[in-house]
## 1
Amino acid sequence: MSEIVVTLPDGSELSVEEGATVADVAYEIGPGLGKDTVAGVVDGELVDKADPVHDGAQVVIVTDQSDEYLRVLRHTAAHVFAQALQRLHPEAKLAIGPPTDEGFYYDVTDVDLDADDLEAIEDEMREILEADLPVERELRSREEALELYEDNPYKRDILEDEAAGDEELSFYVQGDFEDLCKGPHVESTGEIGAVKLLNISSAYWRGDEDNETLTRVYGTAFESEKDLQDHMELRAEAEERDHRKLGKEMDLFSIPEVTGPGLPLYHPNGKKILSELSGFAESLNVDAGYEPVETPHLFRTELWKQSGHYDNYVDDMFLLDVNDEEYGLKPMNCPGHATIFDQHSWSYRDLPVRYFEDGKVYRKEQRGELSGLSRVWSFTIDDGHLFCRPEQIEAEIRQVMDSIYEVLDTFGLEAHVALATRPEKSVGSDEIWEQSETQLRAVLDNQNVDYDLEPGDGAFYGPKIDFAFEDALGRKWDGPTVQVDFNMPERFDLTYTGEDNEEHRPVMIHRALYGSYERFFMVLIEHFDGKFPLWLAPEQVRVLPISDDQLGYAHRVKNELGDFRVSVEDRSWTLGRKIREAQDDNVPYMLVVGEDEAEAGTISVRDRQEREEQDVAVEAFREHLDAEYGEKRLEPDFLAD
RNA sequence: GCCGGUGUAGCUCAGCUGGCAGAGCGAUUCCUUCGUAAGGAAUAGGCCGAGGGUUCAAAUCCCUCCACCGGCUCCA
């Protein structure tokens, strides 16, 4: 019997007999581990403990202590759902039911389900958990499987596609239920402590809109009721800080039906925040050598044909007929900026030339994709385009990355970095794509940035580095982006004169620090839970007179605070009520002024973290505000000890 | 676009099997002038998302449309 060698997570190597399974490897490490083994991860793929390992494999043993255990458990929960469904609705046909990051889903068909059905199914699932049915793996022949799934086109699809080569097919059986499944699963349904069905939606078979629609039921499962409850509380918390809810409560923005879908209106409170954001971006851009420009919202389609948008992006564009000529609302700002560049002749000494604009763009997204500020029809990009010589690319990209990291730092945000490469639908030669992808990779590698590779996710005109923020729900959202573009200069025939007195083609780089203001605003609302730092807060200070007698003094205090966004609470409420309202409005600082303060010319300061201090000199507080605002501190800290 | 859900006062929502449209918060007015998270009273406020149909009668039942919410990537 020959031996093979596998690598364990600590880097050590282990020899086992050829044909050994994951479980065999675990027993080889130690009998205790062998007994506890639930599944394995071989070369990054979660597999059943009965699956064989191959020579040179990276093997991780999964026990009920592993992170992957929950995934295995949820996969079994998906089977429990299917079992319960088939007990109550024998006519239902099963398609696929994998685990997800949050739980699991199962796609089914030939059955109509509503919320009441889910409850009944959930009850049935609990019975199955209580019955503690053993989950057993069985191997069947291809003929057997085909016969079993005679009436199920989806399972047959799987047999002919994913499992095409296999003659032995694995089934998992629990009680009266069996399912074609690669696994792995937990050993018995009793290991699942809690299940919950969350919602019903639909999905296309294999995610392809040309295929038929399946009913998808989402659920989640945990080891214990407590874990489930914690999870549900987290969901509720995330819902509480939903930007759509806070946006309404704080009067930041609205998307009324009458203005059309995905076309947000910014109210004065929201605009104050946007203006601060815009000012910050402008200062970073000006420091980095960018010059502000401005372009209209509408261009002749000639321009979009020249840029390539008309060929590649027309389905997402709003087109208009004006006096028998076709115009298009701009979906991107780059053609306008390229055209500005093209109005001069340039020397190599002039480069890089850097333009930026808060440019409003319009993209006709599918209606079902629109959602709050995260997906809209009209949005504003803090869009910069720079034109440089090829040898300047790396330095320019590094400078852009520095600005992006300054932004992340300022807001206390985390981001995931991804390098997106050539998509199927693209313009430009293979050489050009390869050259630009190599340049981006070089910058990332030289700066030791952790990044994911996203093949095929680039723009049609070039590869890009994308930053994704993580929001309160753990969803990832597009944020800053840096894109190299060798195509646009070609299409616009942009040139500069080199040292050799010959014409050369500049390289164009697209970049945004925030991404879009809309989406960045959304991320910030949820990130801060409406409690914006002083520099962003629409209302920075509210003066609360104890009685109406101090209204005059309250206004004098407001005037002494100069340009800060200060309001005076002039409603005849009790002090307790005034504080409650200010607290609910997330105002960073409340200044209480009563008879004592008016006489002494002082203020009593309270912040939204409920700290307070009396007998404060107005001048000292104003100086603090200047510093806190100037340094963009994340929390009000006048009262910090 | 597709599947499921929702649409009633400025906001949050109640209104079951058809029978005079409700509550809380907010707003307005009056009283109260208050020391660190809701003082009291009164008043106003509605094309029940839009259009069509069934019915003596529709917020409620049926059809069409619109908007919003969740989902439509994570491979048995």
## 2
Amino acid sequence: MPHHVPKIDANMRCGDCPIRKRAICAYCEEPELLQLDDIKSYKTYQAGETIVWAGEEMPLIGSVVSGVATLSRSLADGRRQMVGLLLPSDFIGRPGRKVAPYDVVAANEVMVCHFRVAKFNTLIDSTPALERRLLEMTMDELDSAREWMLLLGRKTAREKIASMLVLFARRGSEAEDKPIKDGLRFDVPLTREEMADYLGLTIETVSRQVSALKKSGVIIVEDARHIRVPDYVRLLNEASDDSDGGFIA
Amino acid sequence: MPHHVPKIDANMRCGDCPIRKRAICAYCEEPELLQLDDIKSYKTYQAGETIVWAGEEMPLIGSVVSGVATLSRSLADGRRQMVGLLLPSDFIGRPGRKVAPYDVVAANEVMVCHFRVAKFNTLIDSTPALERRLLEMTMDELDSAREWMLLLGRKTAREKIASMLVLFARRGSEAEDKPIKDGLRFDVPLTREEMADYLGLTIETVSRQVSALKKSGVIIVEDARHIRVPDYVRLLNEASDDSDGGFIA
DNA sequence: TGTCTACCTTGATCTTGATCAAGGTTTGGT
DNA sequence: ACCAAACCTTGATCAAGATCAAGGTAGACA
């Protein structure tokens, strides 16, 4: 069983929520916005199971509780690029929205995703508050996508790896409600292949760069899925995540 | 004066709109959604002029009429990646939304952008219809960003160039309300440097790949800003834009 | 009309990350 | 406990694209 999967109980109610910080939390935050159905609407997907095919409509709307869902797009010859990554507490699904052509959402990991699914029809002509919340979340997602584009277009392999690890560290600490500090330990929720798809690299390069960061002492690799960071600022520097805030004359 | 800049007349009214197809068109579509101010609210930016700095709020909301606006993000050492490209008819600005840290929106070209600016305060607590429209547009933008990510992460330099040219061809034909056909001619609204920033390449590679496509007979380069396409399908193939619609087992 | 500057092209060489290849490790099923 | 399959690592070589370098072109302006 992977990284601190919160125990889900079919009788849980808001307030018992295992994740808190982000998006709409199906457990504790703004439940009235989602007009939550009864508890039956939790859903779980197995690792590798497809949640929805390209061009179809999302079968659900809610928050990821544990595990990971990914969204990928690929070329005719099989080259694949991950274009979305949903970690615990992330919101998934948009009411009345079809998945864009050739997008694929796949469940990944011991994908223990649980959702409270609302009735779609009530959502589509739903409250202004929900509309606004969805807009807010979608704009946040767009911002993340743009950060990701910077990574894909301009970062070196080593920087890409470091940036990804920073993301995992951040989200991991958030989930556990701990501050990010030196010596932190976190899970790597993706396989090497998925990391490669995430970063626009090959698995060999991913493996090599992780090893290189290890050899430099930036990270301690306990095993392929667990990493410890002795000096968080050093990892941050490796990511070159910092930008110049500049402007164009 | 560049590519067919529509003539803007300070007394124009909806129905005289020079752009039609996409987003909210400030001229003819859904003007009531934007609660348009009077005609004074058109705005023009010079080439290279900055529309808004990182962390600030968009000074306007409306549609690009002509010219190009770009959104870029960069690393501390100056490496820059374009993360947004707004062509005529694209919607610009979100009410009450600050530009993400380190994002920059810059006017580009003989940037003849005109807008009808609505009053922000009325927009922020605006109609459900506008909220929904904004959500729709933001999701479309997210879809484009994801297509762009596939390009950045997995396409070759040649494919990147071809994909970009297809985009320009499409948008150009749309603007002129002509079908895309063989022999079409279109403007390239970016400098080589901007193309490089768009594609995650260097300007030398951009230049070389354009030359290579020319030598292969896929395109006819009239000058750096004007291209003709004898066989549109061939250009499409070069872009490898086609994807497999596949799924993950 | 000439010159300056910004922009573009092409060549030579180098580097990063891809590709090809071989083993090693972990996990899950029986 | 053993085996198979999936996953990961490392090495050797290759190639796409970056970097370094040298002109060329065209529009802006005096």
## 3
Amino acid sequence: MDEPKYTISTAAKLMGISVPTLRMYEREGLIIPFKKTSNQRLYSDRDIERVMCIRKTINEDKINIEGMRRVLALIPCWAIVKCSAEDRAHCEFYSGHTKPCWMINHKKNVCKDRECRTCEVYRSFGNCASIKEKLKELLP
Amino acid sequence: MDEPKYTISTAAKLMGISVPTLRMYEREGLIIPFKKTSNQRLYSDRDIERVMCIRKTINEDKINIEGMRRVLALIPCWAIVKCSAEDRAHCEFYSGHTKPCWMINHKKNVCKDRECRTCEVYRSFGNCASIKEKLKELLP
DNA sequence: CAAACTTGATACCCGATAGTATCAACTTTC
DNA sequence: GAAAGTTGATACTATCGGGTATCAAGTTTG
């Protein structure tokens, strides 16, 4: 499920979209594909699922990319990774509200050693309803 | 601040937008103006502030209306009004994730006697950063 | 009661944005 | 080592959604 196995053209073909579109989603901060040391992208089945979900929400529900990004920017990472007050003080994400945490530089806090792609925060968004589910879980 | 005092044309003039635009924002679930018994809309200074914020986010930050709605749909009302498990079981909002709670019918739960316009949940969105601030407050 | 305004609805327009095509340079594969 | 594929970048297009204008019918106001 999480094994990066599809090249970008294979993944694009699987989903019926173009290669530049996949790269665009990445540039816009919606997905984080695996990268080989040569910088080549690889996609897992979970990545495919995620992109299909993004695609559906954009095409059928008519949200735009900025809207998706703002929704992702509300995932309460601080409560998920349980970072310290010290960490938060140095975190651009904690004070912002326009970009998801994985688009932000985080050299100075607990996240500096985490790989965002595998972080629970990024993965909280598996399908479209799951961010709210996460909030329900954290706020009983 | 909260006193409904401007008619729709006055409010529109104050903000430099058209009357149909104001009605559209309402139809889309972004604002809830006060309504006289005759159904005529009235806007308070807080309403004006809210609309200006929505406008800025749409025009400058390029989010679209569906995006705004999805962001509003993440306000954790259940934790704010502290509704019961019973209430949640009967609440369409609690199980959905596409519309803010005030767009949902709520006859069967604790919200049935609340006026959404004056509810803290609706008012959590005073300016654009405040939803995340609310989450920070609730999730220390 | 008449003028001004509001109501919901429909029809229309223009700009912006999601998506594609194409490029030269570089990697992978066999 | 040659063919196939990937990289980032730029340029382009078609669509569609935010916003406005306008309507007849109803309401306020003075």
